[in-house]
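ok so I'm stuck.
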Amino acid sequence: MPPDLRTFDPARVARSHPPLLAHHLQRLWVHHGHTTATEQRLPSGLAQLLVLLDAPKAPQLLLEGPRSRPFTLTHQPGRVLGIVFAPGGLRPFLNQPLSEVADQHVALSEVATWGDRLADAVAELRDPARIASAAAAVLSAAVRPSDPGIASLVAATEHCTRVGHVADRAGLSAAQLRDLFAEHVGIAPKRYARVRRVQGALPWLRATDDLATIARRGGWLDHAHFTRDFRAITGVTPSAYRRRVGRWANHLSVQAPAP
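replied:
not stuck anymore, here's the structure
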């Protein structure tokens, strides 16, 4: 693993209630960037909290809402703590529905009351493992009770090609499913399912340019269907993605050679 990036399993770093925290978080990471860099980020459907550890005076906390479309982001030098929330896992930490923060960056103080405790807990720490552990402790105390059925519903939507079937099996109307997703995911269920399916194809696309095989494995009708869906979600074609992707699957260079 690159020395400037450390990732952590939330269940391993939590000081209290590790199973509960692992239910809501996907991973924590600490990255130390040394240069200013601009990149295009692909939508993942997930939300994450960014803690700018070297901000002037005190750590700055920015919530990156769940993304359903690509966006451009400029990184400044310094250390960043990232807390990636599991699908549907962020709502118990916030005062607002996820639809209020989707596709945008907002100050955590606008949507939650525990940000100052997190900033204080990590402000003087240097070791990435201790930073992740301190953050997990604050989150363990901040999480509110939630319906475990939400995670199952979101997971079922992620792995199905017909969202209507998920609503039927759960005994919900299409409108009720949309309302639940607005509250807990922030993205409409059909769009979320498409975003997550494209996300699942990224490792395959990094490994091969055989689009027919990728389409078959991912449940698309053919390579043309996959290409249309991929471009609609990411804003680039599969071939452009392969040219521009770098170290991380969701990060593309902004300056790219002409097709």
